[in-house]
Amino acid sequence: MSHNSYWYIGLSLISLTLLAYICFKKNTIRSFLHVLIMVQIAYSIETVIYIYLGSYQYHPKIIKNFAYYDSNIGALASNMLAVPVAATFLTTFRLGWFWKIVFIGFFAGVELLFVKLHIYTLYWWRIEYTSLGLPVYFMVAKWIYPYLLHPLKGWLHSLLLFMCTAPFLGTFHIIPIMVFQNRFYHPGWFTDPAHDTTAFASIYYVFGTLIVITLVKLQWKQGWIKLCVLTASFYILTLVLKNSEILDIRIWWDPYYYVLFPLLIYVISRAISKRLSFGASQASNNA
Q: Membrane-crossing residues (predicted)?
């Protein structure tokens, strides 16, 4: 394993330790839902500036065959763990601007260190942009948190359900592609096939999440019908992408996985929906 990897693994372990501390000290369910929402916000930002605008590239040297997939691993360490967990820590412990500045300085310092170590390359992005963007991100985290204290319904319930569900579907979708190269997408947006695949996957998982939460919110008494519709929807989506030559399947188990794993996401999303409807804090207290 390259020395590059240890830096990213170390950052991930620090983040997981902090997340465990949050869950131990605070309401586990509410904190976890808050982390999920902040992950989706980070994913959305990263989709724009990293995937489509080419802001920077990570070099953890964990995936050997495709440099862009390797870069995605670094992006996950930052956007699935480090930044969302920090935002939830600051919010749940109601820490003021002193600690926010400490964390902003920490992330700016990590960026600078990674650049100096040549394990992170900046293109048009600057560390100053991170330092200016994080205060906004932390304020959004603080604004969202109170909504998780009470039962939700209507459009706000749907929005937060989407934001809690999307990280699951997006992560379960892209990780096998990066590790096993079991499929490629060819929309023709970028010359690098790994970059092209990642870009299309960022659209795919949003569309897939909309299918899942639509079925979760439909008031059908026969739950098995929803599961059938869900499976059929992803099967048809696979056929359409395959026949249009956007999807290139490389491994035999790929179609089965991508048609069936949304069933697990549906189960997770339905559980989250109930928690949001009942109120995450009340649900935990009554458990």
A: 6-24, 31-53, 73-90, 97-123, 129-148, 160-179, 199-216, 223-241, 256-273
